[in-house]
Amino acid sequence: SFTDSPVTLKILQNWVPRVSHYFDKEHYMYVGHQIVIQESIEHFGAVVWPGALALSQYLESNQEQFNLKDKKVLEIGAGTGLVSIVACILGAYVTATDLPEVLENLSYNISRNTQNMNMHKPEVRKLVWGEGLSEDFPASTYRYDFLLATDVVYHHTALDPLLATMVYFCKPGTVLLWANKFRFSTDYEFLEKLCSIFNTTILAEFPESNVKLLKATVREN
């Protein structure tokens, strides 16, 4: 499935030099908008990881290939919300999801960066991978054009529930875009599992950051 060779890219220094002395905010520039992200040191999910930068940059540069305007987009493991904010600026109906303890910071970042814009209002919801999916997101009501995930695979035990969540939301017609820093053998094992289930293509590699960006779609029988 890896016939098309991926483009090799560099994560650009898209952040704006800080003018303030506060240590907890990063300023980014995507799609002509300055995005201010508050990170938190208590939670993994509250730091901007390289996969989020890679996917934000890619979505900004490939708007013809992946046109998000008026599309329904679900981000799983949204963390600080950077990718969801970029998708929102690109015109998508965005639902950003993560664990309960991350939601406060996620909601803060998303509302702060989208409140005065003429765009679809993003939604922030709790989603624990593999738990209560058919109750909270019944398939009859919730269908997504795009499923976004960045740096969701690292040293944790939730990889099977993560895969199950991707399978649950990837209906025919859904495009999964997953960007991840590849550090451990478990990351490659997860990739192998993904490839065994979906049609998978590596869209881009960011060798300096060890990030790969993949597109996956359901295999049509």
Automatic annotation (TrEMBL):
GO biological process, one term: methylation
Entry superkingdom: Eukaryota
Gene Ontology molecular-function annotations: methyltransferase activity
Keyword field: Methyltransferase, S-adenosyl-L-methionine, Transferase
Coiled-coil spans in chain: none
Name of the molecule in the record: MT21C methyltransferase
Native source species: Herpetotheres cachinnans
